[in-house]
């Protein structure tokens, strides 16, 4: 479906209510800025697993085109939350017309093994014409629009940074957080005591926790641990205007997205961030293998680029090992991009680069480094040129 085929809201759907600071983005309503539109339906999502080479694409696009995805948060649809989003959110005072219809449909009709599969709803896969193993898939985050004015932060199943210590209750803890507009900006809100007024406010910084490419073979990966395919990397730098580069592993890349967040602190210590549904418009470009190597050297895992930083990543079940992997990735990037000698790059990283903990709660821990590109303004570097329609670098 293209953007031109999307209808406008009817009967008030999608218009702000007295309790919403922005329009509710039900499926097929509101602005759809992408070249293509991919709603979240039983036919376009996987729940708890990620695409592999054996999966069929739900959409095919050309390199350089954009897709608007309706993503659905897993919070409020899971088995231990009742698998009834209208009842779950209604208990927190959310009107039925502010609960997403696609969340209701997915909870009711998409299969998931709660004991074997992850929690995340992912949309895709999208086949990008011309993408081949060895290439990089460049995913640019154009826009991220909140679909609803609320989200959930959970500490459940004895998981988080303090397993066995929190939660103190034997039951799962899911904290509802309403979104308010204050001085023209959106904030998540919380009370300081259970049942109190929402007097704590923190700014929203929406991003997708999951962006990835399909893995080789016929086995769908679990949705929780991230890896070289990307997946649940939970790097909160991936806000509007940033880019993720992923090594392509199968023909067509077979990209997917999910795990939408309104806000997340580095570490994501309770288990989840402020989880809430987003409408995400992303642009996909294929960077040929030789152009990718010329720009960045050999990229073997997710690489983020913001307007200020190049952000290599390291991942491992052991946080210390993830840190070491990130340092190695940063050294390789600096040599590949700027030709910097290893001992000099190591010194630079120690003096000038912050290494942040992406998350410690997703089986595989993540660390990412923030290398300021402005520090290398005087060093020649090649930009990653996308593949043109004739199959070569543009």
TrEMBL record:
Stored Gene3D superfamilies: Acetamidase/Formamidase-like domains
UniProt cross-references to InterPro entries, sorted A to Z: FmdA_AmdA (IPR004304)
GO molecular function terms listed in the Swiss-Prot or TrEMBL record: hydrolase activity, acting on carbon-nitrogen (but not peptide) bonds, in linear amides
Segments for region (Disordered): 1-22
Family matches, as PANTHER family: FORMAMIDASE C869.04-RELATED
Protein name: Acetamidase
């Amino acid at each position: 479906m293209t953007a031109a085929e999307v209808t406008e809201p009817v009967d008030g759907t999608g218009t702000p209510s007295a309790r919403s600071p922005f329009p509710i983005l039900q499926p097929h309503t509101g602005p759809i800025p992408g070249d293509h539109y991919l709603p979240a339906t039983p036919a376009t999502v996987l729940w708890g697993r990620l695409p592999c080479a054996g999966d069929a694409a739900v959409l095919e696009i050309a390199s350089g085109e954009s897709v608007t995805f309706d993503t659905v948060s897993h919070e409020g649809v899971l088995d231990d939350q009742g698998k009834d989003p209208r009842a779950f959110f209604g208990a927190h005072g959310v009107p039925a017309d502010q609960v997403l219809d696609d969340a209701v449909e997915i909870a009711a009709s998409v299969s998931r093994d709660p004991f074997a599969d992850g929690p995340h709803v992912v949309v895709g896969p999208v086949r990008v014409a011309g993408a081949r193993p060895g290439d990089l898939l460049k995913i640019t985050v154009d826009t991220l629009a909140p679909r609803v004015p609320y989200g959930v932060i959970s500490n459940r199943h004895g998981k988080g940074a303090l397993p066995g210590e929190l939660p103190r209750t034997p039951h799962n803890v899911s904290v509802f957080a309403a979104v308010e507009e204050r001085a023209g900006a959106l904030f998540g809100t919380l009370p300081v005591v259970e049942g109190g007024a929402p007097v704590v406010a923190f700014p929203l910084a929406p991003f997708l926790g999951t962006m990835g490419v399909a893995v080789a073979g016929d086995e769908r990966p679990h949705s929780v641990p991230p890896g070289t395919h990307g997946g649940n990397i939970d790097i909160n730098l991936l806000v509007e205007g940033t880019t993720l580069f992923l090594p392509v592993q199968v023909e067509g890349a077979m990209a997917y997205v999910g795990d939408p967040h309104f806000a997340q602190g580095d570490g994501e210590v309770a288990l989840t961030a402020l989880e809430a549904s987003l409408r995400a418009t992303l642009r996909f470009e294929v960077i040929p293998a030789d152009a990718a190597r010329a720009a960045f050297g050999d990229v073997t895992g997710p690489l983020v680029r913001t307007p200020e930083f190049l952000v290599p990543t390291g991942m491992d079940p052991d946080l210390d090992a993830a840190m070491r992997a990130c340092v190695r990735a940063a050294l390789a990037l600096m040599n590949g991009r700027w030709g910097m000698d290893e001992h000099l790059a190591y010194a630079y990283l120690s003096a000038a680069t912050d290494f942040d903990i992406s998350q410690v709660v997703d089986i595989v821990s993540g660390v990412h480094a923030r290398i300021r590109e402005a520090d290398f303004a005087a060093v020649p570097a090649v930009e990653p040129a996308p593949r043109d329609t004739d199959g070569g670098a543009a």
